[in-house]
C-alpha cells in the first residue's frame, strides 16, 4: 500500500469514526437501547457511501471487509461508555463531524471521477456521500434534517467539491495536497459558520408571513 | 431523434420541471437555505426515477447526462426568484404537479414493459416512479406524506397505469396517443378529486374511535 | 421442489403475510385511504428484502414473480374487511409480526451466506431484512421507529442470527432444524420481552437530565 492509498484509507477511517460518534450520541439523546445506538451509528456512518455505491452500481464498500463494521461497533461501544464525558467532548465531536463531512465528500467525488462521470455529477455524488448519512440519522430519529437549513452544511460540501475540481484542473498541486486542502476548507467553512452563525441569505423569506405549518 | 423519442423526452422534461417546482416551493415554506431548496428540488424530481432504476438494476437516468441536473437547478433558482408570485402560481403549480405525476407514471410503466416484466409489476413501477419523489420530499420536510390519504394521488397512478395497459392491449391507438390519453386521464382524476374533495371510501373507519395517536 | 425449498418458500410467504398485516393495520390507524393502505402494506412487507437485494446487487425478489404481490394485495384487502376484528386479532397479529421478524432474519442471513460474505456481515444483512420493512413503515407513518428502543426488536434479530451461525457451525443439526429453532428463539425472545417489559439496560441514561428535545 503506497502513500496515496494510505492517505485514502486514513481519510475513510477517520470519517467513519466521526460519523459513528455523531450517530451514537444522537441516538443516546433519544434514549435508544444499546443495539439501537449501534444501528443508528452504523446507518449514519455508512449511509452516504451506501447510497453512492448503489447509484454507481459498484460493490457496497462495507460488505466485503470487516474493518468498517468493526470500527463502527467499537466507536459506538466507546461512545456509550464515555457518554458522561459528552460536555467536554462537544467541541471535539463537532470537529470530528466537520472532518467527517470533508473526508466523505472527497471520497465520493473521487469515486465519481474514477467512474468517468461529469464533474458536476461528481460534486453531486460528493455531496450525497457527505450528507446522506446525517439525513438518514435525522429521519430515523424523527427530526427535521438540520443540514438543510443550518450552519451551511450542504453548502460547505458543494463549495469544497467545486474547489477540489478547480484545484485539480488549474494548479500543479499533487492529488494528496489538493485533498488535504479541500478537507481543511470544508472544516474551516463549517467552523466559521457555526461560530459566527452564518446562514445562507434567504432572499425569498421576507415575503413570507405565517405560511409555515 | 424521431417523433416518439421527442415525445418521451418532452414528457420527461416537463415532469422534471413540475416536480422540481413542487419541491422548491415546499422547501421554501419550511425556510430551508438556498442549497437546501436545490437539494429538495433535486430529490423530489429524481427520487422516483432513481428508485425505479435501482430496482431495475439499470443506469440511473440522471447520472450520465447533465440535462436533468441543469433543468432542476434552473427551475429551482427560478422558483426562488419568483417566490412572490406564488399565490398566482398556485393553480399553475397544481396543474404542473398533476402532469408530473401522469408523465412519470407512464415513463416508469414503459421502462417496466421494456424490461419484460409482468404488467402488474409495471403498474407498481409506474406508481413508484410517480409517487416516490413526493414521498421522499415529505419525509425530508418532516411531514406525513399526504399522498397516502388525500386527493386520490396513488389511486390516480394505479387507475392511469391500468388504463394504459388496457388501451395498449385492446385498442389500435398508437403508443403516442395512448400515452397522451393516459396522462390526461391522470390529470383529470387528480383535478376532479381536488375540486370536489373526492376521497376513497374508507369503509374501515367507522369502527374507529380515538385510536389515533 | 424438494423439502428444503418448500420450507424456504413457506417461511417467506408467512413472513410476507405477517408484515403485510402489520403494515395494513398501522396504515388504517392513521386513516390512510385504501390504496394508501395497500402501498404501506407493500412497503412494510418487501422493504427489508428489497434493501437486502439492492445491497447484494441481485434481482429484487418480488419483481420477477407475482406471488409476493398477490399475497400482499390479498392480505391487505382481507385486513381492511376484517378491521372490526382487530381487538381479537391483537395477539394473533403480534405473533405473526414476531414470526415475520424471525423468518425474514433467517432468509437474509441465508442469502448473505450464499453470497459468501463474512458471518458478521450476514448477521447485519439478516437484521436489515428483518427490521427495515418496519422502519420504513414507521418513517412513512411519521412515527419514531419503535424498534430502536422498545421490546428488544433489533436485539432479537442479532441474537437469533448469531445463534443460527453457531448452531450451523458447531452442531450436527440439519439446516431445516436449525432454521426452525432460530425462528422459534427469535419469537420467544420477542414474546418474553413484551410480556415482561424487558428492555436492554441503558447504562448511559442516568447521567441524562432533560437533554431530550
From TrEMBL, chains A, B, C:
Transmembrane segments: 6-28, 35-55, 61-82, 89-111, 117-140, 152-170, 176-193
Statement: the UniProt record of this protein carries the keyword Cell membrane: yes
Glycine transporter domain boundaries: 10-82, 95-168
Protein origin, superkingdom: Bacteria
Keyword Transmembrane helix listed: yes
Keyword terms, alphabetized: Cell membrane, Membrane, Transmembrane, Transmembrane helix
GO cellular component, one term: plasma membrane
Places the protein is found: Cell membrane
Entry-linked InterPro entries: Gly_transporter (IPR005115)
Bilayer topology: Multi-pass membrane protein
Family membership: Belongs to the UPF0126 family.
The protein, known as: Trimeric intracellular cation channel family protein
Amino acid at each position: 500500500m503506497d502513500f496515496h492509498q494510505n492517505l485514502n484509507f486514513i481519510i475513510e477511517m477517520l470519517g467513519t469514526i466521526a460519523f459513528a460518534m455523531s450517530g451514537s450520541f444522537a441516538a443516546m439523546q433519544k434514549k435508544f437501547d444499546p443495539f439501537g445506538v449501534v444501528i443508528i451509528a452504523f446507518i449514519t456512518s455508512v449511509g452516504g457511501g451506501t447510497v453512492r455505491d448503489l447509484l454507481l452500481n459498484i460493490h457496497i464498500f462495507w460488505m466485503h471487509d470487516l474493518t468498517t463494521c468493526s470500527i463502527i461497533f467499537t466507536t459506538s461501544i466507546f461512545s456509550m461508555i464515555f457518554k458522561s464525558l459528552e460536555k467536554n467532548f462537544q467541541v471535539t465531536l463537532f470537529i470530528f463531524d466537520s472532518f467527517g463531512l470533508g473526508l466523505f465528500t472527497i471520497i465520493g467525488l473521487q469515486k465519481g471521477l474514477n467512474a468517468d462521470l461529469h464533474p458536476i455529477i461528481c460534486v453531486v455524488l460528493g455531496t450525497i456521500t457527505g450528507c446522506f448519512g446525517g439525513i438518514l440519522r435525522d429521519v430515523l430519529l424523527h427530526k427535521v434534517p438540520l443540514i438543510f437549513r443550518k450552519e451551511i452544511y450542504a453548502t460547505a460540501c458543494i463549495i469544497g467539491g467545486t474547489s477540489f475540481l478547480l484545484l485539480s484542473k488549474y494548479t500543479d498541486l499533487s492529488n494528496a495536497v489538493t485533498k488535504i486542502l479541500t478537507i481543511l476548507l470544508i472544516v474551516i467553512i463549517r467552523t466559521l459558520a457555526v461560530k459566527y452563525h452564518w446562514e445562507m441569505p434567504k432572499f425569498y423569506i421576507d415575503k413570507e408571513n405565517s405560511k409555515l405549518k
